[in-house]
Design a protein that fits this description.
The protein has about 280 residues and is of the alpha/beta class. The protein is built from ten helices and nine strands. Strands 3-2-1-4-5-6 form a six-stranded parallel β-sheet, with helices on both faces. The chain has a three-stranded antiparallel β-sheet with strand order 7-9-8, with no helix packed on it. It is globular.
Amino acid sequence: MLLCIPQFFHGQTIPYSIGRIVVSSDGNEHDHDDWAATPFTLALLAAHNLQDKLTVYTFSDHIWGSNHNKSEGKAQMRISALEGKEIYNFKNSNFIEAVEDSTKAIKAIIKEINKSSKKNPLTIIAAGPMHVVGSAIEKAHVSKLKFVRIISHSNWNDNHADKPYDWEQHSGWTWKEIQDKFESKGLIIDRIANQNGGDDYNGMKAPKALFDWIKTSPIRNHSEEMQKQLDWLYSRQLTCVKKGDFDPSDAGMIIYLLTGKQKTNPSDAKAIIEGGVK
């Protein structure tokens, strides 16, 4: 008996099992959650030994400016992204500061989209305003879009390009515009539950006490490198405290990518990071 394989299957899987990963995050303006989320994102991917699968990480992708609402935004994102790259051994990943060179960031994502195939699909984690990733999708080969999945969880990220604050003027790609133009071309649109939490789940924005395991986990005894990673990870969470909560909310998309779980909480991150130590 022949096994029927649906024609719409193009290689992307949730939970993750195949292909490359691109992350685009902001953090240089408005909210400082990415100061904490970028380190957590890198820690979670590293726990699954996915360093070489993360091909591009664009950070500070609020390309319309930095440091207005958060005066340290640009500098803090450089610490979270570039120190994280070294601490978690992302030696072959291309980290790009999008606000400094948006053309370079967009071209890097275009290149990754255009590499995509059934055997080598691409997942884009959209952890900032959609304009950088939308611009790349628009300029990529349309025939490749069926091998690409884009994931978001945030209304603010989805809409900010066309909803500037009073002191700024800009427009650009939104989630709905990407969906309307490219879903029919095969792009997989994956909008998941809000990682800031909901009625029956904490999300990754959660009370600080739920992250105490970073300081006490037995995997700290595994190696000096592991202790250094966990100390640094916790120190970066301290940069984003909101009314007693840490807020690495965008990292919940990595938990979803790795597990398929949308209603996340810090214990999911604990299971992934501790489970990566053999």
